[in-house]
Amino acid sequence: MTETMQDRRARLMGPNVPTFYREPLHLVRGEGVWLWDKSGKRYLDCYNNVPHVGHCHPHVVQAICAQAGQLNTHTRYLHDTVLEYIDRLGATFGHGTTQAIMTCTGSEANDIALRMAQAVTGKTGIIATDNTYHGNTALVSQLSTRKPPIGGYAKNVKLVPAPDSRVPVGGTVEGQAAAFAANVARAVQELEADGFGLSGMLICPLFANEGLPDLAPGFLDPTVAVIRAAGGLMIADEVQPGFGRSGSHFWGHDRLGFAPDVVTMGKPMGNGHPVAAVFATPRVMGAFRDAFGYFNTFGGNPVSAAAAMAVLDVIEREGLQDNARTTGAYMVDRLRAVQHPWIAQVRGAGQFYGVEFVTESGAPATAFVADVIEGMVANGVILNNIGKHRNTLKMRPPMPFGREHADIVVDTLVQVLAQTPVRG
Amino acid sequence: MTETMQDRRARLMGPNVPTFYREPLHLVRGEGVWLWDKSGKRYLDCYNNVPHVGHCHPHVVQAICAQAGQLNTHTRYLHDTVLEYIDRLGATFGHGTTQAIMTCTGSEANDIALRMAQAVTGKTGIIATDNTYHGNTALVSQLSTRKPPIGGYAKNVKLVPAPDSRVPVGGTVEGQAAAFAANVARAVQELEADGFGLSGMLICPLFANEGLPDLAPGFLDPTVAVIRAAGGLMIADEVQPGFGRSGSHFWGHDRLGFAPDVVTMGKPMGNGHPVAAVFATPRVMGAFRDAFGYFNTFGGNPVSAAAAMAVLDVIEREGLQDNARTTGAYMVDRLRAVQHPWIAQVRGAGQFYGVEFVTESGAPATAFVADVIEGMVANGVILNNIGKHRNTLKMRPPMPFGREHADIVVDTLVQVLAQTPVRG
After folding, report:
1. What is the mean pLDDT of residues A277-298?
2. pLDDT per residue over A37-50, tens digit each?
3. Residue among A7, A108, A126, A149 nearest B293 (CA)
4. Residue B10 CB: number of other CB atoms within 10 A?
């Protein structure tokens, strides 16, 4: 009896550790926007944002190798690269978030960000949306858990209804912005009534997990006004929007048009090397450093800093933000030309695409989308779903994804849609 | 006006970000047990446990480079190395902790471990010692903070007095073990009276931050009995003791002689690459997977798994655990021969050494130890202090540290002690 890989996985990792797709992929090699499985089958990666500048980009690999062979310590000693990196990345912010704590994961960054808001305000209430994900620490996972944690849901966390994925359903853009802000104002009042007070609001400026709604710049302005009036901080989780993915802007909060007090980032920052960060204004950083001790052994070590620096090099040298803008526009045009009775909306923000499907009756076409995903993977294109009802195809490729790859994805989608029986 | 490196650091990282030593070191290169600063001065590293198998070990660097150039994704796809690693490391445990979640930091591992205890027991009370450190997430930092967090100290955390660094001061070993257990029993009663109940106890089996007390095997037995009787879990934080450092055993809990339900590890695991893990019994892992969703993007990725695997290779091939045992015994013998009126005790556990200093009146010689540390660094030996009163020299070198290095450290210490004026 040979143990299957999935049985071995269950034996070693425990029960209920999900993989993607009905038949999990066993990948062995990556290069640029391409992945290969053990049998040699090639896949176009239209999903992974961690390999931001392309799988195994030689410039990043070289930077990691060179530094790993030279020195890898921690920030209790002085080292140039971490300072050069913070200086360089800090210069991309337009709203004063120039000081940083380097961490290893976006979860650690958000865990700090929430405490920064507490340190500044002296209060503990947190607001997020009701269909989001900001990480996996005990604190941060309270913003996305669907199961009550042991001891019950945190009473200082209020989740407001996410913007509807298809704006402006049932009203104007202005109306939806006001409605969102009104829910936030109600949450602030509840936090104050419950004695927690407001520390801040944490949002992804693309509302990516919420379904990538096509929000106009200024959508968040009434909400920001509510948060500021209550003395709270705005925290932008740039794990998904950041580093030029949206094409039009390097950061998602600039795209949406608001000035955060704290910016967190993670996945794409080191192209897969575990590096993340939280940037804040000096006022916020000072309050945090005063209220909390914090040291991260691996955070900002010379190798992590070198990897992150190399990612910035490639984004600039290869014009990847501009590619996201132009390829993004091309891909959206091509997706909008795809004919299928259940396509409700095509949305895009640079190299981030959503194609939402609803049935004739207007119900989310969740099962159909699941079948389409399987069909795409079978035909060599990796992607997934987003949104509350999981009825939106999620495409978020490595940034070197170009027109020739867009053509492959759309042509494959047309073929798979034609072959997939409609079922709600 | 040229900005100094320390000014730049304050500008970019914010205020109060400590460095080691009165004049911070600006390190640029590492190899084995040696570090070099920007001026070319060489230091014997008698402090850093992260570069476990030696700074920039070529086998680990090569493993990272090879895998970074091949594929670096996440565990939503199948990959061999992470499974082989868990299988291999799991075989080193004698008490059934065979299933693992891979993370990036020991903090993340402990954050999960505490939730595992909650999942198994349905309760939230946690016990640790009053002079410990287990990490930096919002949850885990509640075990070591000296400042009340915003919102106040967590009421479900009880800190018991750490074992005195000089056992058995004022009594027998058995007496101190019983006294420690009695304090734990009182904490359990308080947690139950307060309605939290006991989920578990988290300890470092070397009590390293507590001062590396010279505890006999079995010291913890009465405490474990108290925890078990209350239905709680024992969590061993092996971030410092693990991977053979103690010489006599691969894991600190085996040295102390108890069977944990959960084992966490971090710093030395990837020789500086950010990789960490929590191992648990299938019963505990099943309860956690059932109660909490958890996914870690970077955790267990192919590069992290390759780095961790390479560290195990080197530990085995170079006999580093055995070297820790023999070099450890040699170094302790040499340290015990050092003459100084304020040396109160020399303690050792493999490649982990403590030399405690007290004044003639028996007071902790904290300022004197600080001066000795500066003298050692000036003479090219890096080390630091531990314990509640910071009056114990802490030496915890990379594992290839051998007799010739021990000779350098002790000879330098003799010289520095002779030159350092005594002051309490």
Report:
1. 96
2. 999 999 999 999 99
3. A149
4. 16
Q: Which long-range contacts (CB under 8 A, 24 or more apart) does B2-5 make?
A: B5/A78, B5/A80, B5/A83
Residue A168: asked if its preceding bond is cis (omega within 30°), the reply is yes
CA distance B379 to B207: 29
What does the pLDDT look like over B82-112, one tens digit per residue? 999 999 999 999 999 999 999 999 999 999 9
Predicted confidence band at A151 (pLDDT cuts at 50, 70, 90)? confident
Question: A386 φ, ψ to 5°?
Answer: -140, 175
**8 A C-beta contact, residue A82 and residue A102:** yes
The mean per-residue pLDDT over the stretch A264-269 comes to: 97
CA distance A151 to chain B (A): 7
Which residues, 6+ apart, have CB-to-CB distance to A333 below 8 Å? none
Q: Locate tokens 């990379």: which residue?
A: B398
Please say if the pLDDT value at position A170 is more than 60. Answer: no
Note the CATH number of domain A59-317.
3.40.640.10
Residues on chain A touching B20 (C-beta within 8 angstroms): 76-77
pLDDT, position B73: 96
Best of B43, B103, B124, B273 to disrupt the A interface by mutation (most A CBs within 10 Å)? B273
pLDDT tens, position by position, B344-383: 999 999 999 999 999 999 999 999 999 999 999 999 999 9
The top-level CATH class assigned to A5-53+319-419 is alpha beta
Tell me how far apart the alpha carbons of residues A73 and A302 are, in angstroms, rounded to a whole number: 7
Domain range list for chain A: 5-53+319-419, 59-317
Domains A5-53+319-419 and A59-317 fall in the same CATH topology:
no
- Split at pLDDT 50, 70, 90, the class of A111 is very high
A interface test, pick of B108, B114, B116 with most A CB neighbours within 10 Å: B108
- Chain B contacts of A28, Cβ < 8 Å? 70-71, 79
CB contact under 8 A, A267 and B297: yes
Question: Going edge to edge, which strands form the sheet with B27-31?
Answer: B27-31, B34-37, B42-45, B381-382
Mean of pLDDT values over A175-182? 93
Q: Which of A217, A150, A160, A215 is nearest to A189 (CA)?
A: A160
d(CA B265, CA A297): 13
| Residues B73, B77, B83, B86, CA torsion sign | positive
* Residue A350 distance to chain B (closest CA, Å): 22
**Which stretches in chain B have pLDDT values below 70?**
1, 167-171, 424
Task: Give the neighbor-by-neighbor strand order of the sheet with A42-45.
Answer: A27-31, A34-37, A42-45, A381-382
B358: three-class secondary structure by DSSP: strand
Q: Determine the distance in angstroms separating the CA of B361 from the nearest CA of chain A, rounded to an integer.
A: 33
Structure-block tokens of residue B178: 């019983």
Helix (H) or strand (E) holding A112: helix A106-121
3-state helix, strand, coil in chain A (%, to 5): 40, 20, 45
- Among A19, A41, A56, A72, the residue to mutate for chain B (most B Cβ within 10 A): A72
Between B51, B119, B146, which is nearest A150 by CB?
Answer: B119
Smallest CA-to-CA distance from A184 within A144, A232, A251, A236 is with: A232
The answer to whether the CB atoms of B274 and A104 lie below 8 A apart is: yes
H or E segment to which residue B90 belongs: helix B80-90
Chain A, nearest residue to B116 by Cα: A150
- The Cα-based distances of B166 to B163, B325, B344, B363 in angstroms read 8, 22, 9, 13
User: Could you say which of B71, B124, B150 has the minimum Cβ distance to residue A119?
Assistant: B150
CA angle B35-B40-B42, nearest 5°? 35
* CA atoms lying within 13 Å on the CB side of residue B285: 24
